[in-house]
Specification:
alpha+beta, about 575 residues, 6-stranded antiparallel sheet
């Protein structure tokens, strides 16, 4: 298990790989590739030549973390140019690029982060939806890239530090929604993009895939039938041949339909896994148990006590390249460990239903549109930030005066979402919201969190509802079939209605109740006080101490989401300590 790093530099490329903790595997001229110890599936180097308008004989070399779900189709398209059977998926994807350019990448379906030495350029390619992370930085006369942010942080040539605008973004979204990272000078490659780093220090970016709104006047029944076929295909292609498979089952419609399709399509045992927080915390175990019984899965409920969350929170946060202020991170890691302990290599999940088909996250925005009287172009983007109900409205009283002054000239936060919320690629408001959710929360929170925490346990977490063909179809479905009156994800429910009990299909989404406030006043109380009021946090100077003390005391505890806000600040502090990011 490993990750990769790549350099384009005239200054000792081999030495640069070693400096970030990598093992050099290919060095040609100014290009160097290395593999890094740690959880991942990096492989390489692989080489091929010619193709896609390149001079005959030019050799392309690549490393990557690549899992393909349509390798058979890609191999057929390559014909005689396909690499030998049984080759690594990264090698097959390199051949697709060599032969067809970015059209070959667009035709792939999978999870990948690929680096290619192409002439004088270093080419970076991230998968369509952003399952795997990919970062790059410029220092001196060279470029560095890696699937590990921690590796780039170790690069001696990069004199980095804390990127304050990203702190503000994280507190607003609970994740980082675009290119920025918390390290100054390090950017993330966006999903569906190809970034070309040139030896003269410049870079270019190309979009090889972006969801597109298409008018499709077919009936609801016709849309539901095609969607069902696409869902079955998406699940089938993600099932591990000849092996048992796990499914993370919450009891909601999304994870339930994935469980039902896996049980229907797989010829091996299907095991399902759910979380309980014990005590009197509201849960969905009755629903997940009903689905498990209905689908005849071997079901396991994992109880996660608050004491375990407290003891493992720092470790879990350190596994993430970018912090995620999600209180389910430790439970997610524990579930992955339980699945791996059962000897399972692949685990499916139901992530994607909300950002692709229209879940409850969109309702506050739809209500805002009905009543808004502000014609300003960024009013919708501001409302979107408010709808997260994180720390956006608290920033003036949470951030220290020095930080607020330093952020005076920073681009407004609305710039991160406004491009998706304007008329353009998407014309309907619902599709604009779904596009925003897909390209922000989907790529920079949901998918990358699941990928890193499952990889840490030696698993591959796969999300059929984020399948490229399923997403393409979702943006062909008229909005009235996705949000039918007050019924969210209506077309998705219609497509799988025969697979599940009516109780599951038609119940309103409630979501898992995570006892954050109980944790913060119980097993996490001492840790929270020590971290947020300790010498390290004070030296960093990000937050007003009086605000943190007030929140820790529970002042205004009747206000919703206060526990969630403290969780964000605590997660950020733990991540900064893990990465040794100073003031």
């Amino acid at each position: 298990m490993s990750r990769w790093c790549a350099f384009l530099t005239p200054d000792d490329p081999t030495g640069q790989v070693r400096a970030v903790g990598g093992h050099p595997v290919s060095v040609t001229g100014c290009h160097a590739f290395g593999l890094l110890d740690g959880p991942g599936i990096a492989a390489g180097p692989f080489s091929t030549s010619g193709g896609a308008g390149r001079p005959s004989g030019r050799v392309l070399t690549a490393v990557g973390e690549v899992t393909l779900f349509n390798a058979v189709q890609l191999r057929a398209r390559l014909g005689s140019d396909a690499p030998p059977p049984g080759c690594a998926d990264a090698e097959l994807l390199l051949h697709c690029y060599a032969r067809f350019g970015l059209d070959g990448i667009a035709a792939a379906d999978g999870m990948f982060a690929l680096a290619i030495a192409d002439g004088d350029d270093l080419v970076l390619i991230r998968d369509h939806v952003g399952t795997r992370t990919l970062f790059h930085a410029r220092a001196g006369d060279g470029w560095a890239a890696s699937t590990s942010l921690r590796a780039l942080h170790r690069w001696p040539a990069l004199r980095t530090g804390l990127h304050l605008p990203a702190v503000r973004s994280f507190l607003t979204f609970a994740y980082l929604p675009g290119r920025e990272t918390l390290l100054r000078g390090v950017d993330e490659v966006l999903p569906g993009r190809c970034v070309r780093l040139h030896d003269d220090g410049s870079m270019t970016e190309e979009i090889y895939w972006e969801p597109t709104e298409v008018e499709d006047a077919r009936s609801a029944a016709e849309h539901a039938l095609e969607l069902r076929e696409l869902l079955e295909d998406a699940v089938a292609r993600r099932l591990p041949a000849g092996e048992p498979v796990g499914v993370l089952l919450s009891g909601g419609i999304d994870s339930s339909l994935v469980t039902a399709l896996a049980a229907k399509l797989h010829d091996q045992r299907v095991r399902s896994y759910s979380i309980s927080f014990g005590g009197t915390t509201p849960n969905e175990l009755a629903y997940s148990g009903l689905v498990a019984t209905h689908c005849h899965t071997e079901h396991r409920v994992l109880t996660v006590p608050g004491e375990t969350v407290a003891s493992r929170l720092a470790e879990t946060v350190s596994l993430l390249d970018c912090p995620v202020g999600d209180p389910l991170t430790v439970p997610n890691l524990m579930l992955a460990e339980a699945v791996a302990a059962d000897g399972i290599r692949v685990v499916l999940n139901g992530e994607g239903g909300d950002p692709v088909f229209g879940g409850p996250k969109n309702l506050p925005m739809l209500i805002f549109e009905l009543s808004r009287d502000d014609p300003a172009s960024d009013a919708r983007a501001s409302a979107y930030l408010d709808s997260y109900r994180k720390c956006y409205g608290d920033l003036p009283m949470l951030l220290s005066p020095d930080v607020l002054t330093a952020l005076t000239d920073a681009p407004p936060l609305t710039d991160l979402v406004a491009p998706y919320l304007r008329q353009g690629r998407m014309t309907s408001l619902l599709n604009q919201l779904l596009h925003t959710n897909l390209r922000t929360k989907g790529a920079h929170h949901i998918l990358t969190k699941v990928e890193r925490l499952t990889a840490a346990s030696g698993l591959e977490g796969r999300a059929p509802l984020f399948d490229r063909a399923v997403i393409d179809h979702a943006f062909r479905v008229p909005g009235r079939f996705k949000l039918a009156g007050t019924s969210e994800k209506w077309i998705l429910k219609q497509a799988v209605r025969d697979l599940l009990p009516e109780t599951i299909v038609d119940r309103p989404k409630s979501g898992m109740r995570v006892p954050v406030q109980q944790w913060l006043t119980g097993p996490l109380r001492e840790l929270g006080h020590d971290l947020l009021l300790g010498s390290s946090a004070r030296a960093r100077g990000l937050f007003r101490e009086d605000t943190i003390r007030s929140w820790l005391r529970g002042d205004g505890a009747l206000l919703p989401r206060q526990g969630g806000k403290l969780w964000l600040v605590l997660s950020l502090e733990l991540w900064l300590r893990s990465f040794d990011v100073g003031p």
